[in-house]
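Collaboration report, partner site 2.

Our partner group contributed sequences for two proteins of shared interest, and the home lab folded both. The records are reproduced in the order in which they were received, starting with the first partner submission.
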Amino acid sequence: SVASDKGIVLEPDRPFLRVKLFDRAELECCYKNGPTQVIWVNRLPSGQIKPLQNQSEEVFQNYSNSNGKQCGFLTLKTVKLWDTGIYQCQLNNTSVYTHGTYLQVFKPIEKTINLSESTKNKILTAEGVLLLLCVVIPSASLLFKSKKQSKLEMKKMKQEEENIYQGLNLEDCCTTYDQIERSQTQSQYQDVCTAMEEREEILEKP
């Protein structure tokens, strides 16, 4: 509570109230030891104080006194954008104003695009197709690249095998093998003949 002149004690007001356009706004101001009547005013940005009508179709004022606490009430039934401002209670026949409440009236953001259900379904279908393509195309590309790399590796291995046997003549190999076989056979026959001749010479000696 805040003490003011003439023994009036002001109660804290709600400092801020935000209301959507065309909605209802309810404000209050409370004090003690003051007069039994208040006048609601709207303090404009220019500093000018505009008194509100006591009663109208759009603006309704009320007053209550309970347990020594006096309160003034202000109801704006359908707020407009120009209702934005600071609202205070001026205690009747005094120069005392309550702390006040800043009322902000805002306009909700409207949809800029109005789409039908069929259009929304088409957009969702197109998004699904694009998402599927984003998954399938990279996978197919990776598979093709892997297959191509596998073919290159097989071709490289085949070339290496061909390089191993390159320069070898199979006919020469076969000819050399036959010569080795014949030389071995001939040497065996020669050894047998030589052994028989040596035996005959031994038998012929007296």
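Second partner submission, folded after the first:
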Amino acid sequence: FSHLQKKRRAATARRQHLKSAMLQLAATEIEKEAAAKEVEKQNYLSEHCPPLSLPGSMQELQELCKKLHAKIDSVDEERYDTEVKLQKTNKELEDLSQKLFDLRGKFKRPPLRRVRMSADAMLRALLGSKHKVCMDLRANLKQVKKEDTEKEKDLRDVGDWRKNIEEKSGMEGRKKMFEAGE
């Protein structure tokens, strides 16, 4: 029994060691990615944003402002274009996912209502004006004669139950019942 516990402890310890090693490896990878992103950002900024040197004269300063405004406008246009592209792509993605959802058949089906409809009306609804044949489903049924059973004969012989009750009600009825019992 203790042998199994030692095996379990060893397996658990190994699993914990592997888990901690994987977490350490992941942490170092995240740090490397962050450093690479920072380097990439610095390269992009040095390429696209040269260091600012303020000119001394007023006219040179105005020229610099005009250049900066032109750059701002071009960047805004680029940003607007990418936003529109993104919206269009998102809409296409949404449409495709809806099509996929519909193709899988996982859309919610509406609750069905029971509708009384004759066979003729059903065929007319399905076939439209092409439907000319009239279907009378009861026409082909076999006629069955009802045979009198003994129970039904007994019921007919007894007659109307109200008549029996009226005969047995009151003093006269009790007297008849008393005499019939003797």
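Feedback sent to the partner group on the second submission included the following. Residues 2-48 form the longest helix (47 residues). Helices lie at 2-48, 58-104, 119-127, 150-158, 161-168, 170-181.
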